[in-house]
Amino acid sequence: MERLERDVVIVGAGVTGLTAAVTLREAGCSVIVLEARDRVGGRVWTDHVDGQLYEIGGQWVSPDQTALLEVLDDLGLDTYERYRDGESVYIGADGVAKRFTGGVVPTNPHTEAEIERLIVLLDQLVAETDPAAPWEHPNADELDRISFSAWLRQQSDDAEARENIALFIADAMLTKPAHSFSALQALLMAASAGSFSHLVDADFILDRRVVGGLQRVPLALAATLDPVDLRLGQPVRGIRWSSAALPVEAVPADAEPADAEPARAEPAESVEVSTDDLVVTAKRVIVAVPPNLYNRIDYAPALPRLRQQLSQHQSLGLVIKVHATYDTPFWREEGLSGTAFSPYRVVHEAYDNSNIGETRGTLVGFVSDEKADALLALPAAERRHRILESLAAYYGPKALEPVVYFESDWAAEEWTQGAYAASFDLGGLTRYGALQLEPVGPLRFGSSDLAAEGYQHVDGAIRVGRRLAAETIESIESLGA
C-alpha cells in the first residue's frame, strides 16, 4: 500500500477537479488528483470511432461562457463556428416537416404567438432569478412545488406551444420529463445561460466548437501537473476525517457525529483518503464528482443526515447522444443548415456536427428522458433503425445510410450514470440548494452540477473549480493564523 502526503486531495479529474488542482498548485499547495477512470475529462470526452473523430461528451462553447473562453485563450486552443447556413426543419403535431429560418418554429399563428408570449414571460421570471441563489426568488416556494409541465398548463391552453417551450428545458437541457422537476429548477437552468431566450437560440447556445475537441481543455490542464500528482484508475473508496471538525454547538449531547450539521469552524488538519492501493493524508479534500456519485465513497464519520438526504433528492437526467457520419454533408446541398427540432419525434433536436477540415458530414441528434427509456429497452439494431428513421424525417432518406454510427450512452458509464447534469426533484432546490455549497468539516463538494453561471457546462465546471480552490486556500491559511 503506497502512502503519500499532500495539502489537498482532489477526487475526480474532470474539468472541475483539474481546474481546482491547477489553481491550488499555483498558490503553492501540494495536490494529488485521484480519478476512477483511465482518462481525464469526466463528461468531456473526444475519441475516434471507426476512424471518425466524435465529441462523445460535452462540446459546445457559447458567447456567455466567459470562463471557458478565457481558458481556451490561455491554453491557445482555437474554435470554429457550428455550421448554420440554410434553413432549419421543424416537425409539429401534424407530423409534417416544415422548413424555416429565424427563431420561432413554424406553426399556426395562435401557437406561434403563444410561444413568443411564453418566452417573454419566462425571460421576465429569469431576470428575477439569481442563478447563485434561485431559492431567494420572491416566489421560490411556490415555483419549486409545481412541476414545469403543470406550470406551463397554468400559463397556456396551447399544447403545441407548451411542448415546444418544455423541449428547451426538459428534453434539451435537464433531459428529464417536464413533470419531474419544478418551475424554479427550469428558471435556474435558463438563468445560468443569461435568459430563456438564449436557450431557444441554437446559434447562441451552440455557437462554437474547439478544434480537435473540447477534451483538449482537461488534457491541457492535466499536462501542467506532475504525473505523480495525477493518478488514473484510482477510484476513491473511503475518506476518514476527524469528528473534532464539528463545533460543539452543532453536536447534540446524545447524537452521533453523523447527526450534526456541516461544520462552520475550521476543522482538524488531517484527512485520510484511500483507494485500493493508495492512502493519502491531507489537510483538505475536494470531491469533484457529480452528486449521484458521492455515496460511492465511504465516509468516516458518515456525512451529516441532511447531506445524505440532499444527495437523494438530486439525480442526473438521461440522454442518448447520436452521431451519424455520411460521405458528404448532403443536407447542405439541399439548402438545409442541419438544425432540426420536434417535441414529437424520437430525436427531439439535431445539428450539423461536421468537424472542421473534413469532407465528410456528421449529424448529431439527441434522444432524452422517457423516449430514451423506450429506445434503450430495444435491441441495438432496432434502436439504431428507429433513430435513423427519425433523422430521415428531418433530412430525407439519405439519412438512413451513415458510414459511421455511434451512440453516446452516459447512463452506462460506471463513473457518470447519466447526463448531462444533476437537478433537484420537486421542492428540492429550496429545501437543499444552499446546503450543497457548504463544506462538511475538511471536505468540499462541487462540479458543474453545482454551478450558477454555466450550470451543467464546462464553463460552470471551471467556475466551480476556481471557487473550491479559493475556499480551500483560505481554509488552509486559517490553520496557521
Automatic annotation (TrEMBL):
In terms of superkingdom, the source organism counts as Bacteria
- Where does the record place the Amine oxidase domain? 16-471
Q: Which SUPFAM superfamilies match?
A: FAD-linked reductases, C-terminal domain, FAD/NAD(P)-binding domain
Q: Which InterPro entries does the entry mention?
A: Amino_oxidase, FAD/NAD-bd_sf, Flavin_amine_oxidase, Flavin_MAO
- One Pfam family, please name it: Amino_oxidase
* Keyword Oxidoreductase included in the entry's annotation: yes
- Keywords of this entry: Oxidoreductase
Which cofactors does this gene product need? FAD
By its UniProt entry, which PANTHER family does this protein fall under?
AMINE OXIDASE, AMINE OXIDASE [FLAVIN-CONTAINING] B
The UniProt family comment states: Belongs to the flavin monoamine oxidase family.
**Under which name does UniProt file this protein?**
FAD-dependent oxidoreductase
Q: Which organism is it from?
A: Herbiconiux daphne
